[in-house]
Design brief:
Blueprint lengths: L12 E10 L6 E11 L4 E5 L6 H8 L7 E6 L2 E2 L5 H11 E5 L10 H12 L7 H7 L15 H13 L5 E5 L7 H16 L3 E6 L10 E6 L2 E7 L12
Helix pairs in contact: 3-4, 3-5, 4-5, 5-6
Length: 243
């Protein structure tokens, strides 16, 4: 498996016959049941579904956090279907960025240092790019502030900058607005839209149906299977989303 740190030409996802089973025998839980899915490069996709539908498991497998029980997974041109855990770590480092509902910032580090630390941990990227990443999310004037000196929306922007710092091919956002009020949530969704318009593949996992308005495609999971796929020819602007 290649661990080239350059940005892949193909930033898309292809999943075939993906299954995931937790446990064995009578206690086995079939979290995913034969998922087939293509996400072309540069698409903004929202994966919807209630708790237990399999949406987080699906994204964890695509993002190289978990392994599948069966099926094939290709991400950014890399087949990660049968990859050893150490190689999956290389894959995540080289190709994937994650944004979570809870910002997971280190409280004793400044915004700049919270971005720099991910570069130190992964060994990827130049620490000098941290200010550039913070500028990109509108925090150029707050990079020396600690998390306690930032609003919730600003902290989430730091988390976005941290995810962008290693220039990932695909950006996953798991409930990125879940801990935010509406105006702040709109700002974060707008930021994700801007990143998508620059060519980044964005996959948002949420239970919030309103967030789906900004997507090129909405994939709804129910009981480990794709229940529907809806295409938006004219996605809504983030500023017009309400919930």
């Amino acid at each position: 498996m290649s661990t080239d740190t350059t940005v892949a030409t193909d930033r898309g996802v292809r999943v075939t016959g993906l299954t995931k089973v937790f446990g064995e025998g009578d206690s086995a839980v079939h979290a995913l049941k034969g998922i087939d899915l293509d996400i072309p490069s540069g698409e903004l996709v929202v994966i919807l579904g209630p708790s237990g539908s399999g949406k987080t498991t699906l994204c964890n497998i695509i993002g190289g956090i978990e392994t599948s029980t069966d099926g094939k997974v290709e991400v950014a041109g890399v087949d990660i279907s049968d990859v050893a855990p150490a190689k999956l770590s290389d894959f995540r480092r080289d190709h994937v960025g994650f944004i979570f509902q809870f910002f997971n910032l280190i409280p004793t580090l400044t915004a700049r240092e919270n971005v720099e630390v991910i570069m130190e941990m992964t060994g990827r990227g130049d620490k000098a790019r941290a200010p550039e990443a913070l500028e990109a999310v509108g925090l150029g004037d707050r990079m020396d502030n600690f998390p306690s000196q930032l609003s919730g929306g600003q902290q989430q922007r730091v988390a976005v900058a941290r995810a962008l710092a290693t220039d990932p091919d695909i950006l996953f956002a798991d409930e990125p607005t879940g801990a935010l009020d509406l105006p702040t949530g709109q700002q974060i969704l707008g930021l994700l839209q801007d990143l998508n318009r620059q060519g980044r593949t964005i996959i948002i996992v949420t239970h919030n149906v309103s967030v789906a308005q900004i997507a090129d495609r909405v994939i709804t999971l129910v009981d480990g299977q794709i229940a529907s796929i809806e295409r938006h020819d004219s996605p809504a602007d983030a500023a017009d989303v309400t919930w």
